[in-house]
Amino acid sequence: MPECFNPDHINTRVIIDCTEFRIEIPTAVDDRVVCYSHYKKGFTAKVIIGITLGGFISFKSKVAGGRKTDSQMTVESRLVDLLETGDVVLADKGFPEIKKLLMKVAKKLKL
């Protein structure tokens, strides 16, 4: 574990972030609706990546259309089911709904 994480983040299990990338314009109208990102002003797909404190990829969600929020994707990925009591998850401000989800879970997780 890198020195900068000791001792404050010793219980950190995963650092998560959502990666969004441009895709070609889908041919089906339904797919266009799901993949259009107003934030990126184009058609995108996104995936949540989780890394350990050592930098190894430890989690990857299913790919989703760019219209989904980071919070929606995290909930649907069932990442919380993989965590244990006392684990800490580091995330940026793009995950506001996750804090509510973690409060509901009986595992006493921390964001």
UniProtKB/TrEMBL annotation:
DDE Tnp4 domain ranges (all copies): 16-106
Pfam families in UniProt: DDE_Tnp_4
Molecular function GO terms recorded: metal ion binding
Keywords: Metal-binding
Organism domain of life: Eukaryota
Coiled coil: none
Keyword rRNA-binding: no
Cofactor: a divalent metal cation
InterPro entries named in the record: HARBI1_dom
PANTHER family: SI:DKEY-56D12.4, THAP DOMAIN PROTEIN
Name of the protein: DDE Tnp4 domain-containing protein
Native species: Euphydryas editha (Edith's checkerspot)
